[in-house]
Amino acid sequence: MSVMTEKNTYLNYINGAWVKSHSGDMVKVENPADIHDLVGYVQNSTAEDVDRAVAAANEAKAAWRKLSGAERGQYLYKTADIMEQRLDEIAACATREMGKTLPEAKGETARGIAILRYYAGEGMRKTGDVIPSTDKDALMFTTRVPLGVVGVISPWNFPVAIPIWKMAPALVYGNTVVIKPATETAITCAKIIACFEEAGLPAGVINLVTGPGSVVGQGLAEHNGVNGITFTGSNQVGKIIGQAALERGAKYQLEMGGKNPIIVTNEADLDAAAEAAITGAFRSTGQKCTATSRVIVQSKVYDRFKEKLIQRTKDITIGNSLKEDVWMGPIASKNQLDHCLSYIEKGIQEGASLLIGGEKLEAGDYQNGYYVQPAIFDNVTSDMTIAQEEIFGPVIALLKVGTMEEALDIANDVKFGLSASLFTQNIGHMLSFIDDIEAGLVRVNAESAGVELQAPFGGLKQSSSHSREQGEAAKDFFTAIKTVFIKQ
Ligand SMILES: NC(=O)C1=CN([C@@H]2O[C@H](COP(=O)(O)OP(=O)(O)OC[C@H]3O[C@@H](n4cnc5c(N)ncnc54)[C@H](O)[C@@H]3O)[C@@H](O)[C@H]2O)C=CC1
Ligand SMILES: O=C(O)CCC(=O)C(=O)O
Q1: Rounded to whole angstroms, how far apart are CA atoms 17 and 3?
Q2: What pLDDT, on a 0 to 100 scale, did the predictor assign at position 3?
Q3: Gap from CA of 73 to ligand 2 centroid (Å)
Q4: What NCBIfam families does the record tag this protein with (predicted)?
């Protein structure tokens, strides 16, 4: 049976076969740019489906971990080649499922392919260190072993890159995988899994189960057959998953929200800073955990900078993301649109001034989608809800400060610590920013979003569980260290 059966219906992938859920039910996936565009149906899976997938992953793990890293890497190279041939199809599917523009989806798919190739190469890199023993007749070294079965719970906002940056290192370091993608983008995930299938991955090494987070996601987090859980999504769900894993001694990794600031000082290149604030805040319709949501500006340049932001925002074209001239697509779902509009309302109620945007778009071509105008708020204070909580939509909160110290205090005055950006030509400001900013990604004269696959990614405070994803750092999560001592 193939990935898809009749009526645009996509199946689970368990033990090397595309199968229906035990429930017999399906969930509809529609295009947020136009809800009459039905992307397809995915399985509404149950705890039994999770059990079957976890059993298959456990069955496959002994043979998979016994392959050399280089052999496992070869499967990833093949998967990358297959994905490259399908780049346009996968990107178009991601755009239809969650509404980011086609160039963004193509860029993300290319990034997924590059991640596969990066981790394919990891299969041939070192797995340990020789450490001198105090005993001259002994050899002491470290080696690494896989965790076993890894559960991947992924969100909808990066439907290609996030599943791949979790699955590729899990696989190359010798783990088997059960993935539960967000339902909104489960078809894109099925298409990625089909690339792994065609690359010839042995049955059970990779498994896909779609369905509700509270059943399939939680089922994985609580399952005794799952040795590690890697999650990206909301803070609320991350904490539930972390607790479930901790309860049964499984390893877990959580990447959650951000409330990322950009600081613009008196000496900054204001045009570059304005462009970075706009792209950081409004690209992908603001739905990135690294998105800029607070723009903290020194008073001498505040009015000039504000004017530049407003002008640039007026140029933004909003519409169906499959169309070429569209710069910003819809919000990914009705829930997310309502969530975003409720924050805009709250900003107004709490006394911030809405400078531009913030309206739901409903007329003409917008009537069947989830569209909102990008919004900029002035007169925001750090205690306001829009300056504290993750909105995950195209909304900027502007805050005026006198000094760099004040800017840093405000930037750090949130529970999150994912990404932060500074625009300045002042080296002293750069150094204090690098030292004092509470963020895992520190960016100078660059926008807050923008992650390179070969570097560690993760946050401080409540943005993550303090481990790091991507680059070599992924090895720390997906393996366990053994310290070996050998004496003649
Ligand atoms: N850090 C990030 O990149 C992301 C952050 N978010 C934040 O979360 C907010 C809500 O978005 P949602 O899509 O509802 O996020 P979510 O945290 O509910 O969803 C993320 C993943 O977790 C799964 N899930 C849901 N409940 C679960 C449970 N009890 N146990 C295990 N897995 C579960 C979902 O099905 C999905 O696959 C957004 O407004 C945004 O603030 C959402 C997506 C990505
Ligand atoms: O900025 C990026 O490229 C990655 C962002 C991300 O990981 C997320 O939004 O979940």
Answers
A1: 9
A2: 66
A3: 25
A4: AlphKGSA_gudD
Q: What atom of ligand 2 comes closest to residue 255's alpha carbon?
A: 10
Of 271, 263, 300, the residue nearest 430 (C-alpha): 263
User: Ligand 2: which of 185, 390, 416, 451 to mutate, most ligand atoms within 8 Å of CB?
Assistant: 451
- Chain-centroid distance, C-alpha 467: 15
Q: Is 256 in the pocket of ligand 1 (CB under 6 A)?
A: yes
CB of 289 within 6 A of ligand 2: the answer is: yes
Tell me which residues are annotated as active site: 255
Give the separation between CA 305 and CA 36, rounded to whole angstroms. 41
Res 5 pLDDT > 80: no
Cα 375 to middle of ligand 2, angstroms: 21
Domain 260-452, CATH number (from 3.40.50.720, 3.40.50.1370, 3.40.309.10, 3.40.50.360)? 3.40.309.10
Pocket test for ligand 2, best of 164, 287, 289 (most atoms within 8 A of CB): 289
| pTM assigned to the model | 0.98
The tokens describing 464, both together, are 């993550």
| 451 C-beta closer than 6 A to ligand 2 | yes
Mean pLDDT of all residues belonging to the chain: 97
Alpha-carbon distance 18 to 3, whole Å?
Answer: 6
For helices 69-85 and 87-98, angle between their N-to-C axes, nearest 10 degrees = 80
> Quick check: CB of 157 below 6 Å from ligand 2?
yes
ipTM of the complex: 0.97
- List where CATH 3.40.605.10 sits in the chain: 4-256+464-487
CATH code for the part of the protein at 4-256+464-487:
3.40.605.10
